[in-house]
Design brief:
Radius of gyration: 28 Å
Strand content: under 5%
Number of strands: 0
Number of domains: 2
Length: 170
């Protein structure tokens, strides 16, 4: 709706008189710059869009303070919280899917989890990953699993060393 449409909609609404043109223009601009969203409309994408605009508006003002942290400050904490559910989801998709592309993506997910675990020295995550992957093979014998875990821990250490060398080169 344009400003002219807004004024036309409100014509003769002030005791059969028109409102002041300048006042209507100010009201129109105020509504346009700060959209009115009713609580019942605040669902889904409309709600997310509204909250995003609100956050951007608040961040541009000096009244509220936001803590700016370096990129990646909370990666370890977030991964600690989500690795179990991530492994469960990847295992489920890997086990149930019949599509090569989906299986390939789940393997990439396992690989990325392993890299993150190696970067943060999270051997329990890495052990869980190995055990999860053993479930899909014939390596259910406990002696074979222990050997595989030992072997993977060696690989885990090598991945960490490579990550450290890569970080030093950058």
């Amino acid at each position: 709706m344009t400003c002219e449409d807004f004024k036309r909609n409100l014509s003769k609404m002030n005791n059969k008189e028109n409102f002041d043109e300048r006042m209507l223009t100010e009201i129109y601009n105020a509504i346009k710059s700060d959209e009115i969203i009713m609580p019942t409309e605040q669902t889904g994408l409309v709600r997310e869009s509204y909250l995003w605009k609100l956050m951007l508006k608040r961040s541009s003002t000096t009244g509220e303070k936001f803590l700016h942290t370096p990129s990646g400050s909370y990666n370890y904490d977030i991964f600690t919280l989500v690795w179990g559910q991530t492994m469960a989801a990847l295992s489920f998709v890997f086990e149930k899917s019949n599509y090569d592309l989906v299986i390939q993506k789940s393997i990439q997910g396992f690989t990325k989890c392993a890299r993150i675990a190696a970067h943060y020295f999270m051997s329990d995550v890495f052990d869980n990953l190995v055990i999860s992957l053993c479930k899909f093979t014939t390596l259910l014998n406990s002696r074979e699993v222990k050997f595989l875990i030992y072997f993977i821990e060696k690989i885990f250490y090598r991945i960490y060393i490579l990550l450290q060398i890569n970080d030093n080169l950058v």
